[in-house]
Amino acid sequence: MMQNQIGAVLKVVGGIVIALGFFLGIIGGAQTQSFLFFVTTLLGALVTGMVLIGLSEIIRILEMINENIPKRRKKIAVSSNDTLINETPQPLNTKEQEDIKSFLQKHNVEIEKIIPTPMEDFFFIKTSARYMLIEMGGYTPKIVDAEKWPEELVGWLEHYKQN
To answer: Is 17 helix (H, G, I), strand (E, B) or coil?
Structure first.
């Protein structure tokens, strides 16, 4: 695992802040002959340095979580693709068909075919150039960005195109 540069910098800066606070506290405390000056300077630097080190740890943990998410998604997709491929598509009623057609006409999209999927409220639209995914959640169509397509449907579409 490659360490995040920002996290590493925060950790180093946190250590430097603590060390500087200690030395400046000693120097300032000796010059003013005040133990209170030393303690307040050290505590301020200690708290600030620990917050920076804590932020670096949070970044490290988030980085580890982020690295594990795609692996988990791929495992889910592989197991779910097998079940979705054999499923029959949900029926497309005329109201949904009309809603999709009027929605896409407003967006100037030429429809070749509306393809119902096994997942409820999801429909692939075949255009001359590409496939689009429409979600009918809330009774109004929404175009789903390609990077947000459910993995199960991506595998289902690939299988559909081959048949």
So the answer is: helix
Closest by CA to 3, choosing from 12, 112, 31, is: 12
Rounded CA separation 114/55 (Å): 49
pLDDT tens-digit readout, 137-151? 776 788 888 888 888
Tens of pLDDT, residue by residue over 74-121, are: 555 555 445 666 677 777 778 888 888 888 888 888 888 888 888 888
Integer Cα distance of 41 and 30 in angstroms: 12
Distance separating alpha carbons of residues 30 and 38, to the nearest angstrom: 8
Q: Could you tell me where the DSSP H helices lie in the chain? A: 5-32, 35-85, 94-106, 151-162
